[in-house]
Write a structure and sequence with these properties.
81 residues; mainly alpha; 78% helix; rod-shaped
């Protein structure tokens, strides 16, 4: 029998890959909305451009989450092998 308590075996850590993918999809949706706002000839494009920059940073953070998750998974597989 392992020394891990039964309560600890039921714990599921947050799925970093799913969180990163969701954040990346949200950033893409923000960029689509911003592109429409900037392309609108009657609107001021300033807000859309600022938000597009923020969405770009959100996308970069999401990619970093996914890369880190993949690296951690690779490390875990290396340790188990």
């Amino acid at each position: 029998m392992s020394g891990i308590p039964a309560a600890a075996t039921n714990y599921l850590p947050p799925d970093a890959l799913a969180a990163g993918s969701a954040a990346l999809n949200a950033a893409g949706a923000r960029l689509n909305g911003d592109a429409q706002q900037v392309a609108n000839p009657g609107a001021d494009p300033t807000g859309g451009l600022v938000d597009a920059t923020q969405a770009q940073l959100q996308a970069q953070a999401a990619v970093a989450i996914i890369r880190t998750s993949n690296a951690m998974l690779g490390t875990l597989l290396d340790v188990r092998a």
